[in-house]
Batch of 3 targets.
Target 1
Amino acid sequence: MPELNLDDTISAISTPIGEAGIGIVRLSGKDALKIADKIFKSSDNKKPSSFKTYTIHYGWIVDEHRASSIEHRECGNKISKPEIIDEVILTIMRSPKTYTKEDIAEINCHSGIVPLKRILDLTLKNGARLAEPGEFTRRALINGRIDLIQAEAVLNIIQARTDKALAIGLNQLKGKLSQEIEAIRNFLLDIYAQIEATIDFPDEDIKEYNTSQLSNKIERIKIRIKKLLDSSSQGKILCNGIRVVIAGKPNVGKSSLLNILLRDSRAIVTDIPGTTRDTIEETANIKGIPVRLVDTAGIIEPRDLVEIEAVKKSHESINSADLVLLVLDASSKFNLEDNMIIQNLNGKKIICLVNKCDLNPNPNLRLIKKDLPKIKIIKISCLKNQGIAKLEEAICRDVWNGRVFAWDNVLVSNLRQIECLRNVFLSIEKVELATRNCCSIEIICEELKSALKYLDDILGKNISIDVLDTIFSKFCIGK
């Protein structure tokens, strides 16, 4: 990405393009209000640059360069009238109390590809530049309104697929995680400054660091960092979800199970074996966990090229699964086909589901238990919606390994932040080891400096342009 010019005024469509009630074109920068003056006509003929901050105004977006001539009734002279693009509501927000800490004009128009594109093009013709992905949030970061944790939280909120994932994003946006990281950083900075002072000013009357006190402080900070790292597995699951593959031979009810868990008729269900010839992926919300469900083809021995590819995709899905739901048929005997599928699940986490228990309430599970001695077996009926609640509970127990979490705690969910925290923890452990072995204070200082650098990376202090480019490339253009 080329280096961005922060003096530019940027513009973008900030809502998904499509037919809807409202669409928004957003302007941000020093010339945002001047551009609004050129294209917005209010009902009282006042200019946006004269409007007070946080005020909303009714009017029209007009194109002065595409005027039409009409004849005046009284004098007969032809007058030029600007083309009206759309009837709109204009919101004015003046710096510094805005999202970007710059002047912002938001044009609320009718949502549709034609009005949105015409208005966006008009802003660009009048001096704005098309925003890069995430550039509005990037300006909020650069201008000091938010730190990098909060910037990444914006993306978490946009991408949240469950209420709990949304809550994590909102907590991070409010600054709860930033406050904890900043507190850890300040604690380490005080230790570093005290030790560094004894090196830089040996002749001054500065109290030398005490090994026992340093060890106690390091132990306390290790506990705080470990608590954050322990929360990361929970945070990653709640934000990114888990991948659950539904496996089994043809016509055992895999697609029916997918539809029930999705609470939607997503997959075609028939009595014909082999109806599903490709993997189907959809996300379900199971007790606050985003579960990426994959319905696989149940074909064992492929008969043509299509089925060969289907079987290949099924194996790939199983290999990448966090959890496999093995579906068996209670109305038929456990046979060689079932056994072949089980062999392909070697080493995977499995929950075994015996479907169609409405047809056979007491299936013989002896052979299943022989092949899967330690696997949880649940009897279900997709037709009667029986046993599904037990299955959802079992998925949650498997995901959390029986642990109980406080959902309002400060959680780390971002992979970049987790990696930085791991590096902080490693540096702190090296400080602890160096202190225990009575190493030189120069070595201790270097490791403390390294830990501080990683904490700065989490907060976005002195972070490289390349890292920022990578982070903000994941954003949509209008955010």
Target 2
Amino acid sequence: MPDGAAPVLAVSGLKTVFRTRGGEIHAVNDVGFRLRPGELLGVVGESGSGKSVTMMSLLGLLPSPPAEVRAGVVLFDGRDLLKLAPEELRGVRGGGIGFIFQDPMTSLNPVFTVGFQIMEPLRRHMGLDRRRAAARAAELLDLVGIPDARARLADFPHQFSGGMRQRVMIAIALACDPRVLIADEPTTALDVTIQAQILELVRDLRRKLGMAIIWITHDLGVIAGIADRVMVMYAGQVVEEAPVAAVFANPRHPYTRALLETIPHVRGQRAPRLKVIEGQPPILLAAPAACPFRARCAHAMPRCAAENPALRAAGTGHAVACHWDAPAGREARHG
């Protein structure tokens, strides 16, 4: 995947709020990124950091009200998805961009067969008749590793295990040969053995189909094994972005470093005490005007309370939003 390849998806200035009785929650704050063809971008951060809301904002999947995408540009196939009419956007969802939701136990409709649920996007987006859609649905189940695929089209979701349901969800997301696949923590509800199987399946499908993938997770171990590039989010904004090897070898943001330190390690006969990130993420009743991580950061300085740092270059393909220059051990010189 050449670095100079034109992005298949380009996002800039994305802002999303939720209207609540207590005020507006600024869930996504000026997020931007580019996804190149064939690339796997990992998006990491604590629960509530804005990972899922960002990606659902791109495709109009948030309930409105209370959600409102207030600003931004999302370019896909030369069109700004935020300006499309609802019917046009439905054509992109499942057609050009596939989405795997977080919980396979609840994402499938229990009253329809899995065959019907795979065939629906094929008939809607690709205009296939029932016979051709059924044949394609069986191919997709076979592709994701479900044995006796054609016979299982008549089964209902409750007749599948959790891992098999997630494979069905992947089959639905792949039905119309999307150029981009967004996977929202698709292995969270599965045991570790099934997680490993799903990750290997995704790696295999990526090699075969060449699609670009956005993988949302809180598990840095998963990212280490599958991603090309990592985007770290905190308080609804991007705080670090870099190639996966750089994030693990040379993390530049204190939050990224803290996340890495929470990963369990076994050294010798006794594992060390697990580290935690002290404190809580901020409640975003206003867009951050200061660094949102400052209350939990060991390197906080007066400037952090006065100015929210913008992303700045920190090496080849590496950007960080922080007033602290970690390698130099001093305040960063912006500009």
Target 3
Amino acid sequence: MMTRRIGVGVAGALALVVAGSAMAETIRITGNFPAPYREASFLRRISIDRMTGVDGAALGFALERAIGRSGYFTMVVGGAPATASLAGSVTTDVNERRVQQQRNQCTQRDGDKCVKNELVNVTCNERAIDVIADIRIADIRDGRIVYSERKARQDRTTRCPGDGPPPATEGVIRGMVDSIAIETATNITPFTKTYDMRFYESRDGLDKETGARFKDAIRQTQRDPVGGCAAIAALNEAVPQFALAYDAGLCAEASGDFAAALALYQRAASLRPRDTADFDSGAVRARQLIQRAEDDARR
């Protein structure tokens, strides 16, 4: 019976950064991922159109700044050619009310010294600020809606006698509007992330000699990433074992061979079907990395 060989090239692994810890050996990976809303990420020239509500103009300017700073988009105004239009509405509510709270206060003094503290009821002022924004991005060329989200922010502050004034209402609202704009920009912008992944060190099913070689290979990754990953890849080719397959997948992912990483994570899952959470997560991540590479080529 013929078996499929899944190797991992280590020539591209020279940039690997591997960090050890007292608990486990880890590998640090930097990956480029697609935007959560992929189709919106291709619309590179965006015009800010109608933004309704008392704070609509503020949100429009905040979106213009946040999306423009991403480096992926050009923001245009005044009828300049664009591929997408961004519109939205903002509802802002500010409500204040009196509330009763218990505070620890001095109820008896001896001169300047407090000799008795008690919980007493005091009347305080509670302020609630709610900002809800509906944001939509449409492809001007065919009218398709490529992004439509509702984002909400809330701020509650309570001030009792002696607490001092609360933050200015207008400043709080502007901060919430900026937060919504930054989240929107994040939703439509491809991103790069660095993350640490733990090597599996299980030697279940391995004979004593192979298990020792596996242990040595993992340790080697901490001082010699390329050599350690090459040793893991060789063991994975020789022995069908889930930890070997998964660790070879991590090495492949770190070296930029995402197709190999995907196949290796799937192999690990097939070798240990009772517990595939990490393997499935690796496969999802590899697919996203493959998708980003394809998206960059499309751009």
